[in-house]
Each structure stands twice: as structure tokens, then as C-alpha cells.
Amino acid sequence: MTKEYDYIIVGAGTAGCVLANRLSANPQTEVLLLEAGDKDNYFWIDIPVGYLYTIGNTRTDWCYQTEPDPGLNGRTIGYARGKVLGGCSSINAMIYMRGQKSDYDHWADLGNRGWSWDEVLPIFKKSEDYQHGAGTFHGSGGELRVEERRVNWEILDAWREAAEQSGIPKIAEFNRGDNFGNAYFQMNQRRGKRWSATKAYLRPVANRPNLTVLTQAHVERIEFSNNTGQLQATGIHARVGNDPSHLFHAHQEVLLAAGAIGSPQILQLSGIGSGKLLQEKEITVRAELAGVGENLHDHLQVRSVYEVKNTVTLNQRANSLFGKLAMGAEYLFFKSGPLTMPPSQLGAFAKSDPDQPSANIEWHVQPLSLDKFGDPLHTFNAITPSVCNLRPSSRGHVRIKTSNAEDYPAISLNYLSTSEDETVAVRGLQFTRKIMAAEALEQFKPKELKPGSDIQTDEQLLSAARDLGTTIFHPVGTCKMGNDNMAVVNDRLQVHGIKNLRVIDASVMPRITSGNTNAPTVMIAEKGAEFILKSRKEN
């Protein structure tokens, strides 16, 4: 069964929703958007604190598991990826974080034209609807709503003071290019509700007759032709619901927007990648691109936990019936309070050592504590300052295990596999202790529970980092942009050596941005749409 479209977009996550909106704006252009997950009509998606019920839930999450990681003392960790319209933007932390000027200037220094900070800032502003209006660094009237927090905690205000006393100044906000300082995060919310890519980009155009959205559409492989002497993407094979495989034909381009795990998996299943890997899985090699699935990296957060006194944190409120009722009522009537909380409200950026060219570590600070994600909150009041390395040098990979599209790939991060990353992890924990010992926090009598005050030497701290470290769910780089022998796409996001095929999502980042990766993914998709429209106009 074959159906005809101009563009086929694989993945209705953040990037896919942006692409569907921009490419279908021309009523003469037929666009197909394929999503392996279901509709985003689950109750807990809209409520910000609902990430507790969407992450790890097979209704909304792929529920991947990483391979046992030597850098985490052999542990396997859950690796959430959105499996629903809106993708990760329907289950993520909602933090709006662009990264730093140096991130994008580095991309440009690698030879990627048009990707410097000065060139991408207008794209960020174009898509933004900033609560405080347009200015030098912000835009208004765009699709992506950005607002301030709607709940306050005494302990977080005190942590800000302590960070300042420790050499990290208070700043008004991040997202201006140099993030050194501490500030409350801004979020993709509208009046206390999650503002996902679906709400921002897809729902407003869902009734366009030239846009077709199919959910429960599991892509099996890309269809190619070689009639012109060059490999050319011509369509997608996908199983929709319980129906047998369909062939959807693309007259113009096939666009992979399935994310840093899904996009390389689909390329490999289609015969694009390492010839050795593909031959092992008995897949015909269509194009040898050694970098497909390689260069995987992520922000590893190391979670310290401190019990505190003389204040109230979410632990106390969530562990009492009255507290739960009060929080529910506040959200129901005012759309404020703890139910509007992202996982972290407060952040700080600093250098792990003076020789760093810019801030290279970041804290996500939470007025709560638990043993691990998904577990109940502790019964005592506590705070969790998690620190992560913004520019990790450790690299992993995504590699298919079989030729079956239903089988999950192997996800190996190889965290803390370089001496540089080991050093930053130790210094991050030491810096956290410095902040927690500052005068501003003395009245709350912080008591270190994790790693524990008995952990003192660098060797002990590194071992603790391996025990405590976990992902912030920021995988990137597996189809990286560039022109070296491990690059998968060029700076127009076209797959090297293959016509009419692009990858447009976080997998194209040559190096991860400083902070949460959703806002940069929106920017990448906006630029990708511009490249596509310009290319079609020229042809």
C-alpha cells in the first residue's frame, strides 16, 4: 500500500512538531508526520508535576535501559524518551535553556556555516513568546511560551544566597549567552500548564488539509532508489497500528526527527552506518557512514542530598494529607504552587577550575529528596543540589542489536570514561560542599546524607560519583553535523552522500549545549525548516 506526500517527517517530538508546522504552511505542500507513540491526551501531561507519572510509563515513554556502564560502577539506568505526540517535550523538565554563546561558536568553528551564537539567536527569538516581552535577547509572539516559576521555597532563596557567597553571583536569568551565575529557571509553561511542542506547533495547524498525522506508526526502514547513480531516499516503510507495513512515498525529502536514539536506529535499520555493524546484523549496506550512532553523550548529574531543619520542603508537604489537599487546591484554583514545579527550579553555572574558558558545571537544585527517581519522597525535609559536567569528553554509542525495528538498540554512554570527566565530577562535588557550608544556609543546619561526610578523598568522591551519577536525559550527537569522517550530516542537515534525506533533531549536535536540550532542538528544527524551504525554492 503506497501513499504519496511531498515530505515525510519521522517522529512527532519537539523537532517533528516544528517541521510539520513550518512545512505545511504552504497549502500546496503535502506533509506526513509519523509518530510511534499515541496522542498526548493523558491527564498528567498537562500538569507540570505530572512528569512523575509520564517518565517510566510505557504509555508515554520508550522506557529504554542503558547497557551496564563501567563508569557507573556497572549500573544500568533508565533512559526516558518521549513516546507520544510532543515527544520529550510532553514529559520533560520544561526548562527553557538555550546554552551558552561558546557552544554555538564552537559548532561554527568546526566549519558549520550559520550556527554561531549571533546567527542562531534570532532563531531562538523568532520561536519565543516571552512572558516579559521582546528585547535584545528575547522574542514575543512566537509559538514557544516561556514563563517564570509559580512557586517559592525559602530553602532555594537561601541556596541562592549561599551560591553568591561562594563566588557564583545572582543574575536575572540565563539564556543571554554567558550563563555564569545563579538564577531561577524559566519554563515552557502557560499559566501553570505544560507548554509542549504539540501545543505550541502542532495543535494550531492540525486541521490543515495538507497535513496528515499518524500515531502508532512504527517506522521500519527508509526506502531508497539509485536511478540517478546516487542513493536517494524516496519513502518510509512503517507499520501503523496493527496493520501490515505501509510504504509512504516522499516526492521531496524524508526527514528524520526521531531523536538521538531513534534517528540513528532507523538509519542503521535502513543500511546506513558502520558496514561492520550492518553486516553483523545481516543488513544490506546502502551507505558506509561510520559515525551513525557514535558520539553519544549526555549530561551526567551527580546528586547530593542534604537533610535540612527549620524550614519546609516538598518532602513535608507531600507526605501529609493536608499538604497534598492544599497543593491540589492551590493548583485547581490558582494554577500555582508545587504542582507547577519542574523537577528543578533553581540553577547555577560556574567553572570547575579557573582554567576553564567558560562555565562548565551546572547545578539543578530541588527542594526535595528521594532515593531514586520514581521512589517516594523522604519523610524528612531535605534539598538535592545536583551538579553536572556541561562539556563531557566521554563518548558512547547507539547500535542496533538486531535487524528487527521492534527491538531496542544498545545504548552505551561510557560515562566518566576520561580523566577530564573524572576530575570535573570530583570538583563538582567539592564545590557543592562549599556552597552548602556557606553562611546563608547555617540556620537550616544542612546534614550531608549523600555522598556522606565520611567521603573525603578524591578517590572516594569519584567512587561516590559513579554510585550517585545519573542522566538528566539530554542525549545528543549520534548523527553529528560536520565534514570529518565521523560526521553524518552537513551543516544543512543533509545526510552525507544521500539525496533527499535529512536528520533534524538533537542527534546532529557535534557537541552538547550547556544545559537542557529542548530549546536548542526547537532552534535546530526551525533552521532545518528554513533550509528545506530554501532548497525547494531554488529547485
TrEMBL record:
One of its GO terms (molecular function) is flavin adenine dinucleotide binding. Keywords: FAD, Flavoprotein. It comes from the Bacteria. FAD binds at residues 84, 219. PROSITE patterns: GMC_OXRED_2, PROKAR_LIPOPROTEIN. Residues 259-273 form the Glucose-methanol-choline oxidoreductase N-terminal domain. Belongs to the GMC oxidoreductase family. This is Choline dehydrogenase. It comes from OM182 bacterium MED-G28.
